[in-house]
Amino acid sequence: MNKKVLVLEDEENIRKFVVINLKRAGYDTVEFDMGEPVVEYIKNEDDVAIAILDVMLPDIGGFEVCRRIRGLGSRIGIIMLTAMGQEADKVNGFMTGADDYVVKPFSVAELVARVDALYRRLDGDSLREDSEVLVSGDFRLNLRSRELSKKGKKVEITQVEFLIIRTFLKNVGKAMSREEIMRTVWGENYQGDPKIVDVNMRRLRIKIEDDAAQPRHIMTIWGYGYRWEA
User: What is the pLDDT of residues 174-205, one digit of tens each?
Assistant: First the structure.
């Protein structure tokens, strides 16, 4: 996977500071100050590993950019960057397909650490498996192509959703706490909002369940976590 990070931020001083520190950390970068050109770039280029998207922009908002990127079928890592810290904004970001969320004002060291962690999750050695396919009932997860299918039909998932499904299919029937899922998917040192687990489960249910309101596969264990049922 290319070590290129797309930075969408309309405040030039912030954007330049982030880019300088990403380059120091070994990443290539591409910069934008408007949302529409980002969507076009992602549509025509496949060299971006992670996108950092500011929410408040002069044209279309970062949430809309995120939604359109996912609508293209892109599974790049996405980190939302915003001055808004309200709970609803976090949920909105995750539901549109974001993988992580950093609130302004932020430490650039923390942001680079989040980029590092997301990059390792998407490209690290942890994805190398002895078996190439995991199967559970109607579901098949190809570990080489990182694609999920249900009854032979492809299900569009992000890279983080791939990691969640992989964790479930390797632990069918096992009750897994939120903390265990977070450590496995987001890494031991992840310091983000724990609610990211619940929001991703809601998003996955919409994609894979016949009826997201009455799930048959991603089962909630109240006060504890989740369990995958075949």
Answer: 999 999 999 888 888 777 777 789 989 999 99
17-43 pLDDT tens trace: 999 999 999 999 999 999 999 999 999
Strand segments (E) across the chain? 4-8, 28-32, 50-54, 77-82, 100-103, 133-136, 139-142, 147-150, 153-155, 176-177, 218-221, 225-228
> Which tokens in the block code for residue 47?
């060299």
d(CA 202, CA 204) in angstroms, rounded, equals 6
Distance CA 191, CA 186 (A): 9
Residue 164 is classified by DSSP as H
| Rounded Cα distance, 121 and 132, in Å | 18
Collapsing DSSP to helix, strand or coil, 82 comes out as strand
Q: Which residues contact 55 (CB under 8 A, 6 or more apart)?
A: 61, 62, 63, 80, 81, 82, 83, 84, 89, 93
pTM above 0.85, yes or no: no
